[in-house]
Amino acid sequence: MSSASPVFGTGGEGSLAPSPPVELEPARRLIIALDVPTPLEAERLVERLGDLPVVFKIGHQLAYTGGLTVAERLAKAGREVFLDLKLHDIPRTVEEGVRSLAGFGARFLTVHAYPQTMRAAVAGANGSGLALLAVTVLTSMNDGDAAEAGYACPVAELARRRAADAVAAGIGGLVCAASEARALREIVGPGRALVVPGIRPAGEAAGDQKRVTTPADAMRAGADLIVVGRPITAAPDPLAAAQAIIAGIAEGAT
Ligand SMILES: O=C(O)c1cc(=O)[nH]c(=O)n1[C@@H]1O[C@H](COP(=O)(O)O)[C@@H](O)[C@H]1O
């Protein structure tokens, strides 16, 4: 296992192999969402966070203003990078898109948990170091939102179904809410990463998130890594906010 893959080994299939999780220091379990408008602001934020060995996530907001270049620079500097592009398209487009993204040196890439999409992504990532994470049900959704989108089952059941589909497709990890983490662990076993967004330190505004949990509770529920955006990016002192969250990770992991 290389130092660039501290959580789980790569399966050589573009996914994470079901191997035992490795002990990780708490900071390595924190994924910070660089949800800012420009590469310059992203780089300033990274600088303010100093040498904390966190994972940096680049999503839609930053990717469309040059964020892939930021990803490449961070990866070249030895930082862990997560491309959160949530791919979902016809199989060929997904497979070739993943193949193109494999060149940026990122460690993680998200796709939506549709069987056809996941199989195509696994094919595209084959032979690269890119670990695929399938987004089960967005943490901004509750049962009412799932019904509005045409799903006849609660989000917890939809997440379970998608987790099973992800295992069948050979995907190595899932993005899920902490409320589903225990049930999904039963489905995916110990070797696949559970990545949990919707994290709010006690007392912080949920904003558009509907299935939220504190850092410590997410770890207690079985998260391998947690994703945090606004509680850090909007904090007056992002480094202090990140350190408080890392303390919560350590508390929940013991
Ligand atoms: O894939 C993700 O990272 C993701 C999945 C999900 O279900 N919910 C979710 O919030 N995210 C991402 O996690 C981050 C959460 O940001 P905050 O709500 O600001 O902490 C955002 O970048 C979202 O795009």
TrEMBL record:
CDD domains: OMP_decarboxylase_like (cd04725). HAMAP family: OMPdecase_type1_B. This is Orotidine 5'-phosphate decarboxylase. It comes from the Bacteria. Its EC number is 4.1.1.23. It catalyses: orotidine 5'-phosphate + H(+) = UMP + CO2. The active site is at 84 (for ompdecase activity), 86 (proton donor), 86 (for ompdecase activity), 89 (for ompdecase activity). Residues 1-21 are annotated as: Disordered. GO terms for cellular component: cytosol. Keywords: Decarboxylase, Lyase, Pyrimidine biosynthesis. Belongs to the OMP decarboxylase family. Type 1 subfamily. It is an enzyme of class 4 (lyase). PROSITE patterns: OMPDECASE (PS00156). Homodimer. One of its GO terms (molecular function) is orotidine-5'-phosphate decarboxylase activity. It comes from Enterovirga aerilata. The keyword Ligase does not apply. Residues 29-245 form the Orotidine 5'-phosphate decarboxylase domain. Pfam families: OMPdecase. Substrate binds at residues 35, 57, 84-93, 139, 200, 209, 229-230.
